[in-house]
Amino acid sequence: MNPLESVLSISDLWMDYGGNYVLRGIDLKAGPGQIIGYIGPNGAGKSTTVKIMLGLVQGYRGTVKLFGTNIAEEGTNYKRRIGYVPETADLYDVLTAREYLMFMGELYGMEAGAAENKAMRLAGLFGLDKAFDSRISSYSKGMKQKILLISSLLHNPDLLFLDEPLSGLDANSVMIVKEIMARLAAQGKTIFYSSHIMDVVEKISSRIVLINGGQIVADGSFEDLRTKSQEGTLEQIFNQLTGFSDHEEIADSFVSIVKEG
Ligand SMILES: Nc1ncnc2c1ncn2[C@@H]1O[C@H](COP(=O)(O)OP(=O)(O)OP(=O)(O)O)[C@@H](O)[C@H]1O
């Protein structure tokens, strides 16, 4: 198999909800060591693509292969090699971090003691040692996000789906997580990174895939995209490729309505 398709291969992926097409022929292949910035406007179809790959959404047309296996034909074994940080997570927040992470580790097939030990050391590196036995419901937004990141990585997955992984993190933690991602990619992990924070995507992605209206409208390194679009920043490229130039007009109208007596 071509190493550049060996982790993930999506061919002609279509998905509709009651006749409303949200994915229109997505073709995407990825290999080890890539950090793919998967971006697009709200409702473009990013989460739907990711949820299909995770086996959470059925009823699509096309072929999705992970690690060379068609996910429609295999059981759930391939999921052991996947980690996922969802945009909004329902953490079982009556549990403590220790209980939650042990539970997650066991779901991924880890032995309880091994999961506990690894979770405790990872939480310590995120400064969560003192809170490790407190209920997650008492955690701040950033602390919860750190737990999600740990739980996505506990089983050492080869493919990571991260949806706004830096959400709620302070500047120091953001730096740590960016470094972690770069190191994981250097070890051959594949990272699928969805975010609306364009300057971070621009910096950390080795490849950027822009989806609009359920179709891929750009795929390449930031430098490739910049050369093609003749724009300076990823934010400008994003606006150009999604045909958006009305921000000032919309802001004017918004503020004038706000000002109404
Ligand atoms: N279960 C569902 N039933 C009906 N429509 C859905 C369902 N899930 C998603 N959609 C629609 O599919 C389209 C794509 O949604 P999706 O969540 O994939 O977008 P997204 O690119 O992840 O957006 P965002 O940036 O807002 O997270 C949207 O129009 C959404 O309303």
UniProtKB/TrEMBL annotation:
The record's section on PROSITE patterns has: ABC_TRANSPORTER_1, ABC_TRANSPORTER_2
Keywords, A to Z, come to: ATP-binding, Nucleotide-binding
Single GO term (MF): ATP binding
List the CDD domains: ABC_DR_subfamily_A
UniProt signal peptide? none
Q: Could you tell me which residue ranges the ABC transporter domain spans?
A: 8-238
SUPFAM superfamilies associated with the record: P-loop containing nucleoside triphosphate hydrolases
Q: What is this protein called?
A: ABC-2 type transport system ATP-binding protein
State the InterPro entries in the record: AAA+_ATPase, ABC_transporter-like_ATP-bd, ABC_transporter-like_CS, P-loop_NTPase
